[in-house]
Amino acid sequence: MSVARLRESEWEIVEAAERALADIVPTLSRDDSGVITDLKSVKKRLAERGLGGIDIPAEHGGRGASPLAQALVQFLCGYYDVDLRDSAHAGHGHLIVKHGSDRQRAEWVPVMLAGGLVGIAATEPRGGTNVRRPHTVVRRAPDGLRITGTKRFISRIEEASVFVVFAREEDTDALRAVLVPADTPGLLRTRLTPTGLAGWSWGQLDFDDVAVPPTAVLPGFGEDAGWIFRSHFDYYRPMVAMVALGGAAWVFDHVVQGIRDRVDDGRISRPRDGALERLGRAHVALQSALLAGLAGAARNAQASPATHAWSAAIKAHGVDTAHTVVSDLMPLAGAEVFQRHTHVSKTLRDVRGFTYADGVHDALLAAAGRELMRTAVR
Ligand SMILES: Cc1cc2nc3c(=O)[nH]c(=O)nc-3n(C[C@H](O)[C@H](O)[C@H](O)COP(=O)(O)OP(=O)(O)OC[C@H]3O[C@@H](n4cnc5c(N)ncnc54)[C@H](O)[C@@H]3O)c2cc1C
Q1: What pLDDT, in 10s, does the model give residues 327-362?
Q2: Is any atom of ligand 1 closer than 6 Å to the C-beta of 363?
Q3: What is the DSSP-derived secondary structure letter of residue 127?
Q4: Has residue 144 been placed in a domain?
Q5: Can you list the positions of beta strands (E) in the chain?
Q6: Are residues 83 and 144 in the same domain?
Q7: How far is the CA of 367 from the centre of ligand 1 (A)?
Q8: 303 backbone dihedrals φ, ψ, rounded to 5°
Q9: Residues 210, 241: one domain?
């Protein structure tokens, strides 16, 4: 078994990210649900500190750090606020970094490095678990390509500079990934109100015969985009787990500090054994899920054959663990944190959002099980 290690320069990036978050986050304004009101400016400010392309390869202008370093930064971002999930991360921009043509990378990677966002539009009103058979259609027209259809429950509909849209090619039935710049005529947005992960806008995208050039297909017409979707989420899902676990780790620290304060100021004489046991359980659950998340990110860097099973299961396990820890520990902090604006209450809503975003867990765990059956060795 090989051991993944961070280089000195990668530790420096992680430490710089922590310093930047410590400087910036306390100064941010929030609405009455505790949600940061201008996440886009945070992303820009982090990009100005060189945190826009941490694990984008150096030949494309990024810092060239490993997914393991990025995973640690994701944990830190979640610790400060789960909504910072792609504030120091190219996020779905990796679809373009890894699978784009030279021309597409030349156009969009500089946008990402400057703090621009890339959205992904895969889910449809009929369901998001079956991305392979979308009803959104891309067809060839004399003047290029035309896209028609509806995507729903999409994050970043108002902030993204460009969307990677998964659509079915009319003639061949193949799945295509098509780049649609946010200002393309015929692209219509309708906002929906989420209960969590509300920092970025969220809602529906309608494509009313939207025209894009043939060069907008990622990475070209030759190949079905199913493998692009899979390979991207194999990389991305451990990152999601790390953000959710960061949020839960903050709640853990907050609850421990609250109990300590009550002992110190005499409100309670000592913590009850039941509370201590809950803390012990939560701690080991967080630590083991974190190790799994880091192993998933490291495994991804090494392109192991079992990556798909690991990534799907780690996302489900990491987010479920974070959700359980936050729900279990909340009562220890009393009704104070049941108020909507509190960071504990917000974190619970955000972590719950992750039980849908980037894959529902029953489907992810079933995908992991299928992969394990396929690769089982007698
Ligand atoms: C905060 C948030 C952000 C999001 N951001 C994005 C985004 O940026 N881009 C994007 O494309 N999507 C996004 N999504 C959508 C997300 O990816 C989907 O919610 C997810 O993929 C599940 O799809 P669905 O909600 O349509 O559920 P469905 O696909 O309808 O599934 C619901 C349940 O039905 C089950 N099910 C499916 N098929 C069967 C069957 N045959 N028999 C029995 N049960 C079945 C599923 O396993 C699941 O448990 C976001 C969602 C949220 C909540």
Answers
A1: 999 999 999 999 999 999 999 999 999 999 999 999
A2: yes
A3: B
A4: yes
A5: 118-121, 137-141, 144-155, 162-169, 175-181, 187-191, 202-212, 217-218
A6: no
A7: 14
A8: 50, 50
A9: no
